[in-house]
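Q: Could you fold this chain for me?
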Amino acid sequence: MHHIIYLSCAVAPFTSAQLQALLTLAHRRNTELAITGVLFYANERFMQVLEGEEEAVRALYELIKRDPRHHSVIAYADKPIVERSFGEWAMAFQPSSPQQVLQLAGYLGPTDVTVEVAGLSPKDKNLFDLLRSFTLP
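A: Sure. Below is the predicted structure, expressed as structure tokens.
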């Protein structure tokens, strides 16, 4: 297993419809590739954790880096992991305005996402919490 955690900036603010389309595509693609993870969006920033087989994760990350809807893509973690942190989620999602998009498929509020997995190092948990703090309003 391998994971990449990255942060990026949206080129322009995303609407609820754009976020839903992104989530739908990510969920379908990630299911096909056996990739799990979580995606946060707020304050025109994305933070995502991708996890799965290294080759699949790296290939998806390369596609994500070329997506013209965001820029300044920076990986903060890119390494092997013992086990998945988000094994149940083809793509969990935290949108920018929870009050407006509670009906989005895959929606998780900030308090719904916990990272208490034995295989995640304390350093990675701290990194995840730090990056999440940048994306949450």
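A (continued): The longest helix spans residues 16-33.
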